[in-house]
Amino acid sequence: MSRPRRTAWATGLRARLVVAFLLATAFGSLLTAVLTFQEARATTLERTQNAAVRDLRTQLTSLAPDLPMPPSAADLRTLALQLDLAGGSRGWTTSAVMGDAAPVSAQGPVPTPAPGGTRAPGSDPAARPPTAPGVPAALVDAVREGTGSAYQRFAHDGRPWLAVAVPLAATDEGRDPQPTQLRVFAVFPLDKEASDISALVTAAQVGIVPALALALVPALLAARRVLLPVRRLRRGAQQVAEGRLDTRLDVTGNDELAGLTATFNTMAATLQRDDAELRRLEENARRFAADVAHELRTPLAAMTAVTDVLDEDAASGALPPDAADAASLVASETRRLARTVEDLMEVARFDAGRAELHAEEGDLRTALATTLRLRGWQGDPRIVVDLPGPLPVRIDTRRIDVVLANLVGNALHHGRPPVTVRGRTCGRHATAVLTVTDAGPGIARAALPHVFDRFFKADSARPRSEGSGLGLAIAEENVRLHGGTLTAANAPGAEAGAVFTLTLPLVRAAPAARTAAADPGRPEPEEPS
């Protein structure tokens, strides 16, 4: 039995397990990195926003007592200038607004860009530093409607910015702080925070590669651990397929693969037990058939001798007509039973492997002529012999006689004459080919696969006939013993008859084959289909 071709590593189960493990690791790493990034980004920005609001509120608290109420535009510019100076490293640009007026910075009125970071129509870029955007209009509206601090992140000129708004509450001695219409805005870049977040993303991207590299080792180990029992199961199944039914596998662990291994062992044990039982029954049946045939052989020999005498008396008229008919019937059935017993003994020898082959070199044409002469078929007009050249083979004459007699006899009894026997050599395969063709209706398509089965009869409507149903089975065994083949088919055509093809190895190159080799222009005989 040929071993299964080893699966390529790139398409095998190991590769798929490793790839799945790495994909799961990559997905987990990516998901962790995304969640970490989002959380770190939110935390960083929230901390920056809270710190900016707290710092701005602290500065306002310290500067508010000196601010007159209501403040003038000059007072607002002074307040914005003081807040800008107090911003320190944060580098914010502040502005203040009273009521519904436009925000006023240290340099003058501050335009409020439209949402999305674009400048508001009519704004004057020269009125403020070129790198600082105006206060977003959405933030101005949000603070105008509320009483608490607010903030908004936006992009301007490709940079992230944060705008913070803090309302100012007036404080009178002995009273709680009262809200006023004064609001202070601070706008500053988030370059440092963006750099920190970018560094975090870079670190996450760089960390995926070593994570995958480190995951490759446990992936290989896990794949090996999973595939090792699978490989053992494959080897065990292959051994069972080769006939080694005593194969058993070690069961380790309590997982699904261990359960599968235990099931495999149970299956193998069941197959071994059933195989042993079938072999025992087959051996008993074979021994029984051989014993019965052997026991029947002696009494049948005596019965045959007696029936031969009765048959002679019936033929000579020494017996009354009724007794003569009975004696002829008994003699015929006795001879038929004797042939069946001989066939059974022959089959038993084949089954036991005790069939002996006494082969010697000879010509298949001579063997065929001998068979026809012994059966009284020589010169029979129903049989056409076409053997143009010698067919040198090594044969056991007795066994080949059985084969040829069976093929020609079946063609005469079950087909229609003429029965054509053709022989030729096939130099390409160094074989002698003999075909026996009749002119009958052929073999039914359903019966073709079974013509060499024991006790098979193609005509089920006539189960009782002269034959035992063992002739073709014995013929095939005899041909196989010679190293040849015997096949059955139907000739092409509506009613072309059955064709039995006997193929035997040649002893040496046949003359026809040598002639074809010497004359390249002459076509070599082909083996019949």
Could you give the topology of this structure?
Layout: H1 13-63, H2 73-86, E1 93-98, E2 104-105, E3 108-109, H3 137-145, E4 150-156, E5 159-170, E6 178-189, H4 191-241, H5 256-316, H6 321-352, E7 360-363, H7 364-374, E8 383-386, E9 392-395, H8 397-414, E10 419-426, E11 431-437, H9 471-481, E12 485-490, E13 498-505, H10 511-518
Parallel strand pairs: 8-10
Antiparallel strand pairs: 1-2, 1-6, 2-3, 4-5, 5-6, 7-9, 10-11, 11-13, 12-13
Helix pairs in contact: 1-2, 1-4, 4-5, 5-6, 6-9, 7-8, 8-9
Overall description:
This protein has helices at 13-63, 73-86, 137-145, 191-241, 256-316, 321-352, 364-374, 397-414, 471-481, 511-518; strands at residues 93-98, 104-105, 108-109, 150-156, 159-170, 178-189, 360-363, 383-386, 392-395, 419-426, 431-437, 485-490, 498-505. The chain has 529 residues and is of the alpha+beta class. The strands form three sheets. A six-stranded antiparallel β-sheet has the order 3-2-1-6-5-4, with helices on both faces. Helix 1 packs across helix 2 (73-86) and helix 8 (397-414) packs antiparallel against helix 9 (471-481). The longest helix has 61 residues, at 256-316. The model is unreliable at 1-8, 114-131, 172-176 and 509-529 (pLDDT under 50).
